[in-house]
Amino acid sequence: MYLRLWALAAALVSCGCGASAASHAMATDTRILLVVLDGFRSDYFTPELMPRCHAAAQKGVIGQAHHAVLPTVTRVNAATLVTGCLPARHGLVANTLYVPALNRSGGISTGSRQRLLAVTEAWGGRLLAVPTLAELLAERGQSFLACSSGSPGVSTLLNPTGAGAGILHPEFCVPENQTKHMYEILGPEPPETEPAREMMRWITDAYLKIGVPEHDPRVAVLWFCDPDHTAHEKGVGAPETLAGIRIADEQLGRIFDFHQARGMKVNIFIVSDHGFATYGGKFDVKAALDAKGWMQRAKPVVIDGAIYLPQENEHDLAGIVRALQEDSTIGPIFTRAKSRGDWKGGVPGTLSLDLAGGGHSHGAQIVTYPKWNGTPNAVGYPGTVAAPGDADHGATSPWEIKGVFAAFGPDIKAGVRSDAPTSNADLAPTLAFLAGLTVPKTMDGRVLHEILAGGPAPEKIKVERKTWTAKSPDGKYAVTLRASLAGGRRYVDDVNAAHE
Is 380 helix (H, G, I), strand (E, B) or coil? Predict the structure, then answer.
């Protein structure tokens, strides 16, 4: 996970803006393709599972320290990928949102396009608080297209305003008047299966048969629903999950061949929105609060690990946190900072939401996560999270935070392995830079100059490791966050908690 170091940010961001961006922009006949492999762990990226992608990446850059942002869920990271911002800035703070105007007693799922459109209206007509790549490109007369087999919600977040060439998705099309044409070319919505063979073939066809021939976007995002889709049902490293990865590789191979046959110059980035872990445990925030009477007394709205308190009951924050700290099934606890940028939470023994990149008015006063450990699952993949379920993501383990990163193309260095930390927040500024745009100072991400031709060597990027720990007043609970500092930013590597 990634955070700006505020004291250094202004100077560092300005290095990637303005005339510098224009002078280093790629050729006007070069395109950018951002491929997102949903739920792809970094240890899945092998020549056995992804022969075509792995071989192509050998000719470019393989990043070995790529980070999701917290929480490690799909829609939050989708918003970060296209804005270059943390949830604290773009405002999409969770997969399930608390929007009192729509539901005062529960959450609103961001997986639904219709519900996201309702949220947009409730928030005054704008879903994300900052411009997206699609909007920035449109301002310069350049086109953006999202092709996605993910949920309708994540696909909407890739281009909320429908700028440029819009969105192609098996259930809908933006602009809507092109829906009939889309189905005429691609056929009907494919069935959902595990692995998602037909779904990923369909969305690949969308890029090959409509995206490039009809729109020729300067920047395209291609979102594959596997391995996430299958891993939720079958587990980390299960045969069906691995089959889904191989299918994604086959479809990307079709795209590589298409580019080559057409003589296209394309800078390709392959990343994951988040990783994945094996789950199994008793983490239950609502039950922990109910056991101490807080659900009746303070009447919070609890959505997963997020606790929203009515304003008139905020005096109960310390008591609620104390109850959580005393429950051995509860892991890391974050609260709002007393002052902007402070790493300590406003309640003793907690870390601040600012430290985690989630301090936004749309967020909860308290956010907590389950504990985790390195225990391998039945097929040997490490990483177990102490929460109910079989396989999932959303917590603070390194297996959920760390993901794949690879880049190759005419403007990318060749034959490089980089240990420099990167984040999903770094993609939008890097893509904007390559497209010749002025990188907005509102972006939290940095331009990844070290992977670009003519940029510094990755080993020249100074990396520092740092740890923050907060303890409860009685010393029986401690929460620890570890991060890598690089390029004026803070990349959160993991967060865990311990009880005496």
Answer: coil
Element housing 155 (H / E): helix 152-157
Residue 13: helix, strand or coil by DSSP?
A: helix
DSSP 8-state secondary structure symbol assigned to residue 237: T
Instruction: Identify the H or E element spanning 35.
Output: strand 30-37
Show the tokens assigned to 123.
Answer: 């928030």
R_g (Cα) of the chain, nearest Å:
22
Kindly list the distances between the CA atom of residue 404 and the CA atoms of 7, 62, 185, 463, in Å, as whole numbers in the listed order.
Answer: 29, 8, 32, 19
Q: Coil, strand, or helix at residue 420?
A: coil
Residue 174: partners with Cβ closer than 8 Å, 6 or more residues away: 159, 162, 166, 167
Fold of 2-92+128-276+391-460: Alkaline Phosphatase, subunit A (3.40.720)
Does the predicted TM-score (pTM) go above 0.85?
yes
For residue 323, what are its two tokens? Answer: 């109850």
Amino acid at site 128? L
Residues 442 and 439: their CA atoms lie apart, in Å, by 8
Inter-residue contact 152 to 174 (CB < 8 Å): no
Strand-strand pairing, 422-423 and 61-67 = parallel
Tell me what pLDDT residue 10 has. Answer: 31
Distances (CA, A) of 254 to 146, 209, 247, 366, 465: 18, 12, 11, 46, 40
d(CA 74, CA 39): 8
Residue type, 285: V
Distances (CA, A) of 178 to 172, 183, 184, 206, 415: 9, 9, 10, 13, 41
Sequence ranges of the domains in the chain: 2-92+128-276+391-460, 285-330+333-368+464-494
Question: What gap in Å lies between CA 128 and CA 481, rounded to an integer?
Answer: 27
Mean pLDDT of 298-308: 98
Hey, what are 121's tokens?
A: 């209206």
Burial class (CB in 10 A: 0-12, 13-18, 19+), 104: exposed
| E strand or H helix that includes residue 385 | strand 384-385
Across the range 255-265, mean pLDDT stands at: 98
Number of C-beta neighbours around residue 36 at 10 A: 29
- Name the pairing type of β-strands 61-67 and 402-408: antiparallel
127 and 118 Cβ atoms separated by less than 8 Å: no
Inter-CA distances, 381 with 75, 243, 363, Å: 25, 16, 33
8 A C-beta contact, residue 66 and residue 405: yes
Residue 195 CB-half CA count within 13 A? 21
Q: What is the pLDDT of residues 183-239, one digit of tens each?
A: 999 999 999 999 999 999 999 999 999 999 999 999 999 999 999 999 999 999 999
The C-alpha torsion from 338 through 330 and 38 to 147, rounded to 10°, is -50
Of 87, 78, 3, 75, nearest to 361 by C-alpha is: 87
User: CA torsion angle for 77, 81, 85, 86 (degrees, to 10)?
Assistant: 20
